[in-house]
Design goal:
Elements (H helix, E strand, L loop, with lengths): L2 H6 L6 E3 L6 H13 L12 H16 L8 E8 L2 E9 L4 H5 L4 E5 L8 H16 L5 E7 L3 H9 L3 E6 L8 E7 L4
Antiparallel strand pairs: 1-2, 2-3, 3-4, 5-7, 6-7
Helix pairs in contact: 5-6
The chain binds coenzyme A.
The site of coenzyme A has 19 residues, from strand 4, helix 5 and helix 6.
Length: 185
């Protein structure tokens, strides 16, 4: 059973699931939208069953055997009414680069599905899952650009506490740092 469903019993308004062959067609549609919008260009468009299986295997490997210079990363898909509508990444532990920009969690909503509350929903669904897969983590870092008000809103409404704002060369905007603490059981 999906870990989020197992943890919360909730299935309404979509759920997070680990990447799987169940959503191949829908994932391809989402990826075409992401690519057109300039996101996930480093991800291939795994159109054949074989290339999709190998793509899924790479995502699985990233959890335990990341590429050199990368930290372990878990990927989850937001599925609403059978369609892949968003992607959430959880990275742990942080490295120096992620401490400055990237943080523990990143998320993206498929362009055609934005402004419907799914950005807020993906993080809402992601938090209990993160505490489940990393129970000893006391808090998580989220970063977002100052010129990304939607992401700021998503983080703040999910309990993010602003820490500071960095100005780093090479970035299009200042970077806001937020922390979300694991609720005490
Ligand atoms: C940022 C992103 C996830 C937002 O997704 P979304 O599904 O549109 O978000 P929601 O519909 O849940 O909106 C969240 C809040 O932001 C507000 N919002 C949405 N778009 C906005 C915009 N362009 N300007 C200002 N506020 C905006 C919404 O009104 C909502 O506020 P509310 O809760 O007070 O109503 C989406 O635009 C995206 O995937 N962007 C590219 C990747 C990215 O920036 N990820 C975040 C990295 S930190």
């Amino acid at each position: 059973m999906d870990p989020f469903v197992a943890a919360t019993g909730r299935v309404a308004e979509g759920h997070l699931t680990r990447p799987s062959g169940d959503h191949h067609a829908s994932f391809l549609t989402a990826m075409r939208e992401f690519h057109a919008a300039g996101h996930y260009h480093n991800w291939p468009l795994p159109a054949t069953q074989q290339s999709f299986a190998s793509f899924l295997a790479d995502l699985e490997l990233a959890i335990t055997c990341p590429l050199p210079g990368y930290v372990p990363e878990q990927t989850f898909w937001l599925v609403v009414e059978g369609q892949v509508c968003g992607v959430l990444h959880f990275r742990n532990p942080l490295n120096a680069a992620l401490r400055q920009f990237g943080g523990h969690v990143g998320y993206t909503i498929r362009p055609s599905k934005r402004k419907q509350g799914l950005g807020s929903r993906i993080l809402q669904l992601g938090l209990p899952l993160i505490w489940q897969v990393a129970p000893s983590l006391e808090r998580i870092l989220l970063t977002c650009y100052e010129n990304n008000p939607a992401s700021q809103r998503i983080i703040e409404r999910n309990g993010g506490r602003w820490e500071n704002t960095l100005h780093l060369a090479g970035h299009p905007s200042a970077i806001r740092h937020y922390w979300i603490e694991q609720p005490v059981a």
